[in-house]
Amino acid sequence: MMIAIQTTNLTKKFNTRVAVDSLNLSIEKGELFALLGENGAGKTTTIKMLCCLTAPTGGDAVLLGDSIIQNPTAVKQKINVSPQETAVAPNLSVKENLELIAGIYGGDKQKSHLKADEMMRDFGLTERAGDKAKNLSGGMQRRLSIAMALISDPEILFLDEPTLGLDVRARRELWKKIKELKGKKTIVLTTHYLEEAEALADRIAIIHDGALQALGTAQYLRELTGTTTLEDAFLQLSETEVSQ
Amino acid sequence: MRLAAFASRNRKEILRDPLNIAFGVGFPLVLLFLLSAIQANVPVSLFEIEQLTPGIAVFGLSFISLFSGMLIAKDRSSSFLTRLFASPLSASDYILGYALPLLPIAIMQSAICFLAAFFLGLAINVKILVTLMVLIPTAILYMGFGLLAGSLFNDKQVGGICGALLTNLSAWLSGTWFDLNLVGGAFEKVAELLPFVHAVDAAKAAISGEYSSVFPHLLWVIGYGVVIFTLAVVAFRKKMKGK
Question: Which residue of A has its CA nearest to B85?
Fold first, then answer.
């Protein structure tokens, strides 16, 4: 199996505070990988480093053969991200938002137009094509956000808290869309919803205070801790360090 | 193509916000008509249409900083910039993408101001075209203010800094509403050290055809423009690096 993301002692410090502490991860191509942790655990900082948004203070990460330190431009061509907040252009229509991102990733007008139509079809946004993004519901904005992240056809997709603040129905609809991507894209998902990680991820990494506490399938994490639910496993693992 | 896509998005965001149109075009026009009405009843040389229009045009341009500052600050707070920073856009694509759409908007803003002044008695001739060109460095200066504020502050702070503080400073220290000589002292000296009065005086010199007087004033505006824009680029690049 080909490795899509390999981090080696990836570290980020903000003055004396260690946000991410020597993270070593190996994520396979086509895998849906979840980073699970409490608020401030270091999930978003990890994503930001992998997306070349902030430089690591130590270590490195290689994404499909390119280092985030040595060759961030090549990395950026292969990835896309749906940030934690709904990052859409509010006064642009749904279609214009999609065409904008397609254009930024180098698509010409005709190609951008066709890709936007395709994404709107896939994400059930066609009927709202002409509506300004600011007038969409929270769930629809999230769908648009993920569609914008996918329009560049990235090999690796980062979803940072994709269902944060959504109601149950909107969350389940989004889960369905994310599940459809499984195997087609390498997806790194951050969440602090345990059921989300369990429902979607092939493997789960539990991060606490910037450090990796445990890594494996939901079943493995339950067995590791001798618990019956992922929630109990998570609580146990985020209190004490477990050797890998 | 990348730059064009980004610049086009920024132009649409600015022009589709009705508040931008109201403040950037509507408010200066209301002032132009109001002060002209005062001039019609109580003649004041400062409010003669040839004297007044350049000042109002510069005042209108001060809202350019609000447009650009708010757009950048909102893009930062909504994480829209995070999405873009993860894309292959370069630093120069961002700077130009935010700045370029503002230039035609600024020129259009000034042109509307002069068109309105025409209906109030301003003669339309080649000097107006020269004045529009003389106003371009002022527009660039205000773009720089907006880019700098948007890179450093959140949208609420930008609203206060660019929407209230800068526009008021631009107005009071420009010699448009009152003659700075009448106040004199430290106020006049401070005003002379800032670019606003020079922006107005350069435009006034251009509209009256005294072209030799344009450049000394314009030098102040260009100097401030270079410094502010450089600071803005440095601040924006720091944000790009996640600092």
Answer: A53
Please write the tens of the pLDDT for every residue from B2-45: 899 999 999 999 999 888 888 888 888 998 999 888 888 888 78
State pLDDT tens for residues A196-220.
999 999 999 999 999 999 999 999 9
In angstroms, the CA A122 to CA A206 distance is 32
Chain A hits for B80, CB-CB cut-off 8 Å, are 87-89
Contacts of B86 in chain A (CB under 8 A): 51-53, 76, 79-81, 158
Average pLDDT over residues A130-136: 95
Which positions 78-137 of B are in contact with A (Cβ < 8 Å)?
Answer: 78-80, 82-89
d(CA B71, CA B7): 12
B108: closest CA of chain A, how far (Å): 21
| Size of the A and B interface in Cβ pairs below 8 Å | 89
Q: Is the pLDDT of residue B205 over 90?
A: yes
Give pLDDT tens digits for B135-172: 999 999 999 999 999 999 998 999 888 888 999 999 89
Is A104–B89 a contact, with Cβ atoms under 8 angstroms apart? yes
Q: Residue A240 above 60 pLDDT? A: no
Q: In chain B, what residues touch A106 (CB-CB under 8 Å)?
A: 1-2, 88
